Amino acid sequence: MSIIQILPFISTAIMLGFTVYVFQRYSLRRAPHFLFWGIGLAMFGLGSFAEAYLALAWSRAVFVIWFLFGAILNPAWIGQGTLYLLVRRPWVHVVSGILVLASLVSSRLMLSIPINDSAFQLGIPISQQYKAIIPPASFGLILIPTIIFGTVGLVLLVGGALYSAFLFWRKRVLPNRVIGNVLIAAGALSVASASELTHLGYGQLLYVGELIAAVLMFIGFLTAARPQPGELTQPVVAAAG
Amino acid sequence: MPDDLHANKRSHMPENSLIFERLVPALLILLGILTLALILFAAGVLLGIIHI
User: Fold this and answer.
1) What residues form DSSP beta bridges with A162?
2) I want to staple A34 with a disulfide (CB 3.0 to 4.6 A). Which of A26, A74, A106, B32 is the partner?
């Protein structure tokens, strides 16, 4: 096993801790943004776990989990959490309904595409050989939701984090949230860039991008959530994304 | 009262900080440009201009 293939094991461990932390927040606050972040981060962690598993053995089910949760769904779910945080309007629930519906359609699509099991080669990162496992015609089909979910997630998560960071920076308050949101944006951009490069044939960069994203986003979240002395808002995170 | 004043000061950005005066705005601009580049790339793929 190469060093690159060890990285998903580390990412999985970090994402597990991150996901548990966010769900603990949700159990305390019952705020929907924690729920969507938690679900999205769990999907991210599942994707990392699938990469780690596929470094050891082949499984069609694990491959489907990797592509569905790791490549398609997770950015939009995390982004939806940020939308809940920044926009307190009833129509956000409608967007959630659309997200759930689109996720179900994408899942159905992913489960229906043919998979060439015999193309899998042990010892090569799955991010470098997935195009050989999914036939070209099916790959073109599944690429559409991958790009759409990824872009929506990018706009909401990174856009929301940069917007929050800019607002706090302009008002010259809550430096922890400025730094935290910049780190979250940088982490999300790390994995988004690595995903795009993977599609262009640089699959070996995906695992590095994911690990950087897991580390930066978790540190960013913890930094933004840290209550500041004299903070006038609620003591728990109110603008981590 | 003095404690409150001290606490409120700590929730504000430190003055004359290189991080907050220079680094943060530069990062916000850089990350914003990178985001736009990724969105344009995704649009290019969806429109069939970029083949992957």
Assistant:
1) none
2) A26
